[in-house]
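Field log, afternoon session.

UNIT: design team B
ACTIVITY: writing a sequence onto a fixed backbone
BACKBONE:
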C-alpha cells in the first residue's frame, strides 16, 4: 500500500472576519488559493472572551457551495432565511448546503455574550459541482454524542469521522461529492495509518502539537497545512503531546471556479446573477421574533 507524503507546507495567517473575530487561515491566502474541491478553511480561535466581548458572523448570504462548521469549544447559534435555527455546541458539526442561495448568521450563544467563555472551531467551504450549484438549501447536524469515532486499543490514538469512511468507521453526514473529513487526536509518540482514497486531493492541518507525516517523516507544526501527494494511505505520528490534526480530502471537481466573497460559481456571469438575486431579495431574510 502506497503512503502519502508531504508535497509542501503552507503556513496559516491570522486575519479578522465576520463581526471582528480572529481566524487562522491556511487558504485562501497568497500561498494557496484553493485545493479542489475545497475553497476555504478557517480556524476560529481559540479565543477567551470576557463578558460582552464575543462576536460572530451576522447576517450574510451564500450561493454555490457548502459550509461545514465544527465546534470544539463554546456554542454558536445558527439562523437562516429558510426558517432554520439551531445551536452548535462543543463537538457538534453543521453541514450547510447553500445551493441556490440562503442568508444565515452564526453568532455566539447568549450565555457566552453575557458571561464570556472559550470559543474554538473550524469552518470549511466545500465547492459544489456545476449540476448542484442551484439546488435547494439543505442542513445536516451531527451532535457530539452521535459522532462516529475510532480508537486504538491503547487509547493513545483517536479519530472522529466527520465525513467519509476511515478505519472501518462510516460518517453520518451525506456529501454531494466524495469527501473524507477526520479529526485525529494523538498522544505523544502515538501513530495511526489512515485509509484515504487515492483519487481524493488531501491535506492535513495541525492545530495542536506537532506531527510527522509519511514514510519520510516530514514535520508539520501547529498552524501548518501539509498538502499531500496522492496515495491510498496516510501515516501520522505525533511529535509532541496532545497532537491534533484535521485530515481532509475530496474528489476534485476539475471545473472553472468564479468567486466573489460569499458566492462561488463557474462563470462571472453567474456571479453577477447571484449578486442581483441577493440584492433583489430573492434569498429572503432571517425572520426573528
Amino acid at each position: 500500500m502506497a503512503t502519502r507524503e508531504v508535497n509542501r507546507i503552507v503556513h496559516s495567517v491570522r486575519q479578522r472576519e465576520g463581526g471582528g473575530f480572529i481566524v487562522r487561515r491556511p487558504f485562501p491566502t497568497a500561498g494557496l488559493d484553493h485545493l479542489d474541491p475545497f475553497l476555504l478553511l478557517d480556524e476560529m480561535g481559540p479565543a477567551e472572551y470576557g463578558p460582552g466581548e464575543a462576536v460572530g458572523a451576522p447576517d450574510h448570504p451564500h450561493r454555490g457551495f457548502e459550509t461545514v462548521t465544527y465546534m470544539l469549544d463554546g456554542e454558536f447559534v445558527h439562523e437562516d432565511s429558510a426558517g432554520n435555527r439551531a445551536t452548535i455546541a462543543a463537538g457538534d458539526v453543521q453541514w450547510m448546503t447553500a445551493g441556490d442561495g440562503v442568508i444565515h448568521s452564526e453568532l455566539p450563544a447568549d450565555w457566552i455574550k453575557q458571561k464570556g467563555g472559550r470559543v474554538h472551531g473550524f469552518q470549511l467551504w466545500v465547492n459544489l459541482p456545476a449540476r448542484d450549484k442551484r439546488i435547494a438549501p439543505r442542513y445536516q447536524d451531527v451532535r457530539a454524542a452521535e459522532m462516529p469515532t475510532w480508537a486504538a486499543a491503547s487509547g493513545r490514538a483517536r479519530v472522529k469521522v466527520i465525513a467519509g469512511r476511515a478505519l472501518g468507521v462510516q460518517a453520518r453526514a451525506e456529501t454531494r461529492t466524495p469527501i473524507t473529513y477526520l479529526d485525529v487526536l494523538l498522544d505523544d509518540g502515538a501513530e495511526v495509518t489512515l485509509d484515504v482514497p487515492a483519487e481524493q486531493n488531501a491535506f492535513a492541518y495541525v492545530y495542536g502539537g506537532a506531527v510527522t507525516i509519511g514514510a519520510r517523516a516530514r514535520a508539520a507544526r501547529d498552524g501548518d497545512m501539509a498538502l499531500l501527494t496522492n496515495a491510498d494511505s496516510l501515516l501520522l505520528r505525533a511529535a509532541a503531546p496532545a497532537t491534533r490534526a484535521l485530515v481532509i480530502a475530496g474528489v476534485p471537481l476539475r471545473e472553472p471556479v468564479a468567486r466573489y466573497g460569499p458566492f462561488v460559481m463557474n462563470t462571472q456571469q453567474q456571479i453577477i446573477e447571484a449578486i442581483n438575486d441577493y440584492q433583489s431579495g430573492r434569498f429572503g431574510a432571517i425572520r426573528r421574533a
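LOG NOTE: The CA atoms of residues 210 and 221 lie 4 Å apart.
NEXT ACTIVITY: expression trials, pending approval
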